Structure formats: structure tokens, C-alpha cells
């Protein structure tokens, strides 16, 4: 059994625990919350035996092996760093870090501490994503990808009515690019690697970046990423090749998939009815990595590349985020992560 603590008591933590409790090697050992009252209520709801409101005390608990982090974006890097120094394995909600400097520093810290670090990006573990890889050769040479992730935030009405929900607070490193855009970018990076260049535009509500579009150029392939926190799109995403295309109904879950080949009727591709969700899949992968004491390198490469792209998008659109205060150069002097990836074959 892998003994977990969770940080955060919102929608993401509730969703995670619903899936996690299905896993035979998951044990909920503790929850962390900013307030004792909320922590006790969440622990009672989820069946956790311990409640922490002090991060140092959580880090010092020898009966916790791993921590799932679902706090506000700005807190991810600082909390993960403190816990990895205490030898806790980390599964962190996306974005694992909101700046490349922080992401690079976290990856280096994980290596230096000898722990597993994984960004929670369920799309990469969905059965539909695996099936998509199988289908791509059927559409021939790829030429264009259009990925849409536009969904109205559940906090948007509160914002429009004069409230100031944290989800729309740019000072907490919140923006549509890190809330929705990464769902477009990370799976494309997993399939195609990093683009040669990107160009972007966005819509802002005050200083908050609320929606955007990005054009990315790969050798011979054009990519469009459309994302929004203030609209919901009914359009599918599409992967176009010279011999046909693949329609993706929901880019986050990579389903349903429809294969459209030249001269043939569109064909919906069946996925296993009993296949686990991407949320379960990422947890299972993380647990296997913890047991093996490694194996997350390729996923960390995706996280690093994705964050390099979002940094460039923010720069183009003048979206400013805070960087957690530590010096990743110290980690580099100990052991450069780029060298580590090369040694691992990435």
C-alpha cells in the first residue's frame, strides 16, 4: 500500500479521491487544509484518520509515503519542494508549476531527493489517447492539428456578479493558459514534441487572461490550440493527415474518436467499456513509479516542454506570474537534469 496525504479540499481533491479509492494499493493517511475546521470536515467526508494544517508537520510524518497536491496554483511549487526535501513522492495537479524556472527547479529537486514527481495530466493516461496513437498512421502524413479546450469556469458567474473568486485572481498565478490551455498543449507535445515557434493572442478580464488561441509550427505540420475559461465549445478537435482525419469529441478525455478516411464513411472507434478513467490511470502509473523508485522522466520532459511554451505565450500576451523563491542553479551544480535525461535515453 502507498500511504497518501492530500493537500486541498476543493473539486480537484474530491475528484481525485473518488477515483483513488478504487485502487487496491491506495491508502488515504491524512489530509492537509489551511484551516482546522475545513480539514476536519474534509477528513470526515473522505475517511482520513489525520488532519494537518502545518506543512512541516505533514512533511515530518513517517507514515506518509506520497502527497497529492491540489492547492491554488501559486502554492504548488513551494509545497512540492518542501515535501520532496522530506522524501515524499509528489503527484501534483496541473500546472505542476506555472513558470519554467519553477518547473525546472522542481524536476531537479525531485532527482536530487530521489523521489518520484509526476504532474497530474489525466489526458495522457486515457484509453482514448492510447487508441489515438494507434489511429494516426491510418490518416497518413500529418499536416494539421486543431485542439479545442473551451469550457466555462464554474466560478465565472460569481466573477460576473462582482465576486473575486481565486480562480480568476491572476495574483495566484491563475490564467486560462494554465487552467485550460495546458490540456491542449501537453498531449500535442506528447505526440509531436516541442514546436519550432508559437504565436498567440488572448482576451483579458482586467489582468486575468480568460481565453486565447495559439498557432504552433512544426516541420510540415501546423497546430492550433484554442482554450477558454469564459466560453464552452461544442466543436470537436481534429487531427488532419493527407489520407484522412481523426475527430476527437472531447480533447481532455480523448473520446469519442471518429476516423474519417478518404473515400470511406466516418467510423466511430470503440473504446473498452470497462476501461479506467484517465484519473485512475495517472494514479496507477504514479503508484507503479513509486514502487519502482522511478520512471517519470518522459512525463517530466512533457511538463518542462509545456511550461516553456506557456512561458512564451504569457510573454507574448504580457501575463505576469510570480516565481517561487529558490535558486535552481544550486540544484544544477549538484546534478544537471538535462544530463540526467540524456543518461535515461530521452
Structural description of this entry:
The protein is 39% helix and 25% strand. The protein has 12 helices and 14 strands. Helix 5 runs antiparallel to helix 10 (297-317) and helix 8 crosses helix 10 (297-317). The two termini are 30 Å apart. 45% of the residues are buried.
List keywords for this structure.
6-stranded parallel β-sheet; alpha/beta; 12 helices; disordered C terminus; 346 residues; 8-stranded mixed β-sheet
Summarize the structure.
The chain has twelve helices and 14 strands.
Oligomer: single chain
Q: Please give the radius of gyration in angstroms.
A: 20 Å
Q: What structural class do you assign from the helix and strand content?
A: alpha/beta
Distance between the termini: 30 Å
**Count the helices. How many?**
12
Strand content: 25-35%
Widest sheet: strand ordering: 8-9-10-7-11-12-13-14
Unreliable sequence segments = 325-346
User: Helix amount, in percent?
Assistant: 25-40%
The overall strand count is 14
**What best-fitting shape do the alpha-carbon axes yield?**
globular
Q: Kindly state the mean pLDDT as a whole number? A: 92
